Each structure stands twice: as C-alpha cells, then as structure tokens.
DNA sequence: TATAAACAAGGTCATTTGACCATAATTTAC
DNA sequence: GTAAATTATGGTCAAATGACCTTGTTTATA
C-alpha cells in the first residue's frame, strides 16, 4: 500500500506483516507542494503525520512577522503539534513543507485504536517520545548556554544532512539568532 | 507509610488503596539539606524522585563556571535526568536542593515493575510526560522569540509561587539571561 | 548571637547582536 | 526561458546585553 512506510516499520519495529498492513491501511497519502501547510496556527491538530519524502517544519510567527522554528521533519520522521493533538485545542504553530513532500496522515481516533491493538506500535511511539524528550533538554541546554557560533556548530554536527537543504534564515530561526549573526559566523569560519 | 505522597496519589490518580501502598512501600525516604544533591553530573541517574516538600533544581555547570537551569521541582513534583535514567548513561546535569527538602526515591527496576503491575500509575507517568512535552515546546518558543523582559513576565505568570523562593540569579540562569539584565528589568518595572 | 557566605543592585565600559538598507546571486514559478 | 521572488552578504549604526567590580544587605550557620 505504502511501500516506503512499510519498509520503515519493518526495519524500525517488530511489527508483523499483518500489523504493518493494518497500520498502513489506515493512513491517507498526501502530496505537499513547497510551502503548503498541514497545520495552520489556530486550527486543531487532528492528525499524526509521517514524512515519506521531503522536509517539513514546525514554526510560529510573531506579531512582528519574525519566524521561530521548533522542529524540522525530514523523510522517515513524524510530526504534529503534540499539545494541540493531545488536547484537541487550537494550535499556536504552523506545519509546512520546505521541500515538495509526500506524507502519510492518520487521524487521532484511528491512531489511538492502532496503539491499543498493536502493542509494538505503542512501543515505537514511546521510543519516539523518549527520543524527543532527550533531544529537547539537550537543545534547551545548548540554547541557554552556548554562543551563537557553538549553536551553529552543534547544528552542523547534529544535522549534517539538513544543512544544504535549508535556507540560512531557517537555520537562524531554529537557533534563535539573527541571519546577520549566522552569516557573520560563516564568514569568520571561512577566513580561519 | 508516606502520608503526603499517598494523599498525592489519591487526589491525582485512580489508584486503589492497595495499589497506593504498593507504590509507596517501594520508596525510600530521604531528607536533603540546602545544596545537597541527588544526582551529580557524570553519575548515572538510578532513581525517580518525588518531592514531598522543598525545592530542587536540575542544572548544568559550564567550564567557565556559569550555571544553567533546566527545571525547578517544588513539592508534589517529580524529577530525574530522564536521558540518563532511560539509557543508564552518565548524566550531564546535577540535581540539588535549593531549600531543605524531603523526597521519595524509587530505583529503576522497582519503578518499572510498578508501572507494569499498576496500569493507573503508568497512566500517571504518561500524563506527566505529556505535560512535560507540552511545556518544553512552549518554553523553547518563548526562549527563541521573547525579549528578556517578556521571558521574565512569562516566568512570573507561570510560577508565581516560586518567585519569592528563588534567588534572582537562578531565575536568570533558568531564563538564559544575565543577572544584570534581570535586575535592570525589575528596576525598570518598579519605576513604571 | 556573631561571623561568614550569599545575594541584589548599581556603575562603567566594551562588545556582540540585531535593525535597516542596498546589492548581488540564486532559486522558483509560470 | 524569462520574470519574479527569495536568498545571502555586506555596510553602517544604535542599542541591548554581559563582564567586571564595588557596596550594602540579607541570609545561613556554627
């Protein structure tokens, strides 16, 4: 049904072939153009999304128009606004495609049923939550303690595969520094 | 056995009296002096900790001696270094008492058994994880997008009960601003 | 209660950072 | 393939922030 996703489950989980097609069959497939959104601020996050290919971002826009990025979601990752999804309350963030992307989406009730019926899927979900928790505190610590240059170097080490796919302004919006500062850092690194 | 904690479970969960004493009986009680630690950076986090009374902080110290705070844990909250606990790997943070405190601690294997045997405890744990996840992204967004003054105001709104219990330098270390900036903000607010 | 330690606040100064603007290069979209 | 949009970079400047130091106050502890 969705061969890429089924391979993902095969390699990342212990789901049986039957369970895999059960999970896969509940998904709806969607193609996203560049800048197309799967969630708008103010709306309720009704789906979990798996990225087959492409690249998405979770971000919020301030009143002054500046953008701040909470997460990038490349191929083989999941995304949603977890607070809006959990509480079924309006979201404060947007989720949009940076590159043309292909995604699978499950609505909440379907996915909850799958979690109950497929214990190994629940295990995967818990593992993903744990990874996210671990990374969140690391990121918070870096954000609090590192200089802009250290933040950028940490980013390049952690996401080497994203570097060339992101405009610098989005890296800056993720690190919480200005584009000016980021270009200054890169300039300094060149002449070193 | 630990009446304060048992009341906490009674009011926050659906655990039966029998389950409550089961959970409670596996805890070890500990009294902490001010500045006493339950976890040192470099050590492995072997316990989950519930704070009966007092106030703890999770923090990391940089090479230059500066301190950055990841979380405060007042009475009726839980704390640990979740990454170190999950992976049983050396921690990068310290957990210490800001005030004289009383805590309960469970070691990992005991707590895992409780989670399996007491489904409502697992529910509580998942709820706490969800709360933590939600707050983490809100905090990250504030950290990325807010001015120092907005960060401080957000803190006062969110943790009014902690304000008077914390030295300003710790609030600054939590917000990622300097003590100087924080005192400037407070001074400006006075004369307004 | 006395002594030491921790803390808040203020002064000064250097510097990093961001805002604003212009330009050039690259990428996107039709 | 061409026009339009987005993007990266650099210049200039002002302002916010932090580093360092001192002082007075509060808090802990023995």
TrEMBL record, chains A, B:
Gene3D superfamilies found in the cross-reference section: Jelly Rolls (2.60.120.10)
Pfam family, one: cNMP_binding
InterPro entries with a match to the protein in the record: cNMP-bd_dom, cNMP-bd_dom_sf, RmlC-like_jellyroll
CDD domains, alphabetized: CAP_ED
Occurrences of domain Cyclic nucleotide-binding (ranges): 31-115
Superkingdom of origin: Bacteria
Name the record gives this protein: Cyclic nucleotide-binding domain-containing protein
Organism: Mucilaginibacter aquatilis
Lineage of the species this protein comes from: Bacteria, Pseudomonadati, Bacteroidota, Sphingobacteriia, Sphingobacteriales
